[in-house]
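TICKET #2291
ISSUE: user wants both folds in one file
ATTACHMENT 1:
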Amino acid sequence: MITSDAVVWNAPNDPHPARAASQRSYSAVARGDLDEWLTVYAEDAVIEDPVGPSMFDAEGRGHHGHDAIRAFWEQAIAPIDAFEFTITDSFANPGSNTCANVGRIRTTFADGSFSTTDLVMVYTVGDDGRVASMRAFWEPERAMATFTPAG
């Protein structure tokens, strides 16, 4: 369920619950809609973005529950002027509650500079279709190496 022009889906698109949740998540981020984004995630959800220690999670334990997920938004998502998601593949077995999406996210800052992150994002949903966990596999150093100044 993509609701943003900033999300390009070039991957299998059958009605898998984890796939649908990932699409709702990307769309909410692209629109800058924190309240909508939080509805995609279960109250006790865990986000690891990226997996392991990083500038967003020094201990590498993930962001647990809506309060921590909201804090992650304020630190990692809110400062970005625009997001563009391109999903090139998605793997989800029928009857499972998990999908793995392969793609690229371009983050553009207010001054027009940008960076591009290649990554794999794994979404697991509960019976209610809300995300129980999201694990994003990407390397901060590689993403920072793509930084392109404005102009």
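ATTACHMENT 2:
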Amino acid sequence: MLRWSDILIFAKYSNPEPPRRLHKNEAEWAALLTPAQYRVLRQQATEPPYRNAYCRSYEPGLYLCAGCATPLFDSTTKYHAISGWPSFTQPLSKSAICYAFDEGHHMQRIEARCNCCGGHLGHVFPDGPAPGGLRYCINSESLVRVDE
């Protein structure tokens, strides 16, 4: 189980090695993704709160990266955080997500990215439920839910 101290160490020193890496140029990403997905995954945009596909969805399944289909989260770790975006307590595996310090918008946050394709997913915060205390606040546009 990952804890906030693990996330800080990954962001500061080195992220876990991903299971694979996917590299595409911006034209290839633009052709592969919808315009909304491209804005979120490649341009670090944030979708509007509460008006997104997975905010209020709790169906069982796996959540994959919309850019490269890497499994990121299991629905069993999804919870109602009242944040306006899908929230998860843990990634599917330690190597699924990579972390970076983000000081944009006059805030200090930890950005969560797909560790395979580098796509922006959202942010992780230390205010989640026990036992891990993590809240992965993720844009729906960066995810695709599939049945297990």
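RESOLUTION: both attachments delivered.
EXTRA DETAIL ON ATTACHMENT 2: The longest helix spans residues 4-12.
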